[in-house]
Specification:
Elements: H1 3-11, H2 15-43, E1 54-59, E2 67-68, H3 71-76, E3 81-89, E4 102-106, H4 110-114, H5 122-130, E5 134-138, H6 139-145, E6 152-155, E7 164-172, E8 180-184, H7 185-192, E9 197-198, E10 200-205, H8 211-221, E11 229-233, H9 234-243, H10 248-277, H11 279-287, H12 292-319, H13 326-329, H14 341-368, H15 371-378
Parallel strand pairs: 4-8, 5-7
Antiparallel strand pairs: 1-10, 1-11, 2-9, 3-4, 3-10, 5-8, 6-7
């Protein structure tokens, strides 16, 4: 019998215990894979090349505070500002609170100049500019609800105390496959009684080199005003929005560490129990002349085979998340499950570490086992 076959036979000697250990390791590493992937998505959002030219102007005190719409014309006059539009998070609900998706009120013409990577047909672009209650939806969002051009929908107000009846006049492509909807800011203003407000402004600079100068000029212009501004790049704004949830990196890292450490204790306990049951067998192997390295290989091999099988199961469980509606499950924070090569490497490395550490102490005990003492113990 080969060494590998002998290791496999040993691992299956107690099928129930081995199966439960594999399931425990698999589920723990699945949690690790999911947590690391979600953390990566939140901390490293997909940003298009065009975003290098975009800035978001918000109130310096809080995102929840509004800015005067009159700031729009003042920002337009700043040198190296190519385009600026109101960009108001509406947070409207379609039918059910579980159907959460991003919806913004924007300028119907300027939105396509600032977010030029989003593509829409000229006819639908013109319809959006001409229809007061018009709205455009991303392809993924339209597919999710079965919307088509000409459909009428109602967004229930949450931030603003108005329900907005919208007509879908266009469907655009979104490179990041995000689910989002645009409606006209002047239509929202009209429904609210024309208060002249906007939560944020989206600005496009003339060049990447101009971005810091534009940001500084905007904030300087409104410094010491009743509504001071904080202008950041689009990526910094997204990360700032995520940071409102708390220190995501610390929270997720802590949970992942607890999961892995707990699983390590379970694996060590299992292998120690296995070793205690095989004291006689190890003593016999030593008696008939098996070298220390072979006995070490038997114990370590069994621990590694169990842990790596669990790692494979965890990765397979993670692959199943690709078919889940994460956008709905996470209320729009996670839209995709796409672990990086580094994440897979961390999960496999963790599985390998669990195998090595859980097998090391029993293997050391087996190698150091005194034959006569073992026989007396058995007697």
């Amino acid at each position: 019998m080969s060494l590998a076959r002998y290791i496999w036979k040993n691992a299956l000697r107690n099928k129930r215990r081995t199966g439960l250990t594999v399931l425990s390791i698999g589920f723990s590493l699945f949690l690790l894979l999911a947590l690391l992937t979600f953390m990566d998505v939140l901390l490293h959002p997909v940003i298009q090349d065009e975003s290098a030219l975009r800035l978001i102007v918000a109130r310096s005190t809080s995102l929840a505070d509004i800015l005067p719409l009159a700031y729009l014309d003042k920002i337009k006059r700043i040198p190296e500002v190519e385009k600026v539009i109101p960009f108001q998070w509406v947070n409207g609900i379609y039918k059910d609170p579980d159907y959460l998706f991003a919806n913004f009120s924007v300028d119907p013409k300027g939105i396509w100049e600032i977010y030029s990577e989003q593509k829409i047909s000229p006819e639908q672009k013109a319809a959006f500019a001409a229809t007061r209650s018009g709205a455009t939806a991303s392809e993924k969002l339209a597919a999710r609800f079965g919307w088509k051009v000409g459909d009428t929908i109602t967004l229930q107000g949450t931030i603003f105390p108005v329900d907005l009846e919208l007509k879908i006049v266009g469907i655009f492509t979104e490179p990041t496959s995000a689910e989002m909807l645009y409606l006209r800011h002047d239509y929202l203003e009209e429904a609210l009684g024309n208060p002249g407000i906007s939560g944020t402004f989206a600005v496009k600079a003339s060049s990447a080199a101009a971005v810091p100068r534009v940001a500084e000029a905007i904030d300087t212009m409104f410094r010491n005003s009743p509504a001071e501004t904080k202008t950041t790049t689009e990526k910094a704004f997204v990360l700032g929005f995520v940071s409102m949830l708390g220190n995501i990196q610390t929270i997720i890292s802590s949970v992942a560490g607890v999961v892995v450490f707990t699983m390590l204790l379970v694996a060590v306990s299992t292998m120690a129990m296995t070793m205690r049951e095989r004291v006689k067998e190890v003593a016999i192997l030593k008696t008939i002349g098996f070298p220390r390295r072979t006995i070490l290989s038997l114990v370590m091999g069994e621990a590694l085979s169990i842990s790596m099988t669990g790692a494979g199961l965890g990765i397979a469980m993670g692959a199943a998340l690709r078919f889940a509606d994460l956008n709905r499950m996470t209320q729009g924070f996670i839209t995709r499950f796409s672990p990086t090569a580094m994440t897979y490497a961390v999960v496999l490395g963790t599985g390998l570490a669990i195998g090595i550490l859980s097998g090391f102490f029993p293997a050391r005990q087996a190698v150091r086992l005194n034959i006569s003492a073992a026989m007396r113990h058995l007697d």
